[in-house]
Amino acid sequence: MKKLVLVLLGLPVCYLAVSQNINIPKIDLSNRAADHFMIQYGGDSWTNRPDSVRTGGFSRHFNFYFMLDKPFKTNPKFSVAYGIGIGSSNIFFKNTYVDIKALTPRLPFTNLDSSNHYDKFKVTTIYAEIPVELRYYKDPANPGKSWKAALGVKVGTLLKSYTKGKNLVTKSGSSIFGPGYISKESDKRFFNGTMLAVTGRVGYGIFSIDAGYQFNGVLKDGVGPSMNKFSIGITLSGL
Question: For the chain, how many structural domains are there in total?
């Protein structure tokens, strides 16, 4: 929460700072492409997880957003952008079963090293998200050929959470039902219904490196370990 407060307090300070520059020449921004559409792909991790939460493999996210971009009249190198989109996170586990359908008060993470387990197993969460960014373009008239950076926040509401296990095998690795066997379970009870995150991007043209940190818990209070999500990846943006 402290990080969100600092970001929100910083936005008006940055605005006041750049608004003092009244000698910026007028630039035609009527036809510029200003990152109105963003696609993000990269790696995810749950921080502060205990030994019982054994993630493994390439955990990843895929996000897409539609954005409106409003340049500052006093300095068009800066703008505020806001929009709406969908964010999905896939956390993979090693020889661990996450029972999101459990009737227990806490979410079980069961070690399956010595018994049947899924060759691949993941937990997926999908959020409807509202991102807000304070953006900087070195060349605001030609953002497709410009260095750029952005700081922001995003708020999300949980649409769906589910687990997916593929290829149930014995402890020795022999497939039980064949490699095409898939099991899915869906339940939102253990996961935080609201996602709050700080974000940042830096890049050139249509490509950026992005990072995000969900500072409220992945799980609801009291139902499991207190963990946060960290993301880093690549943003493709334009239009």
Answer: 1
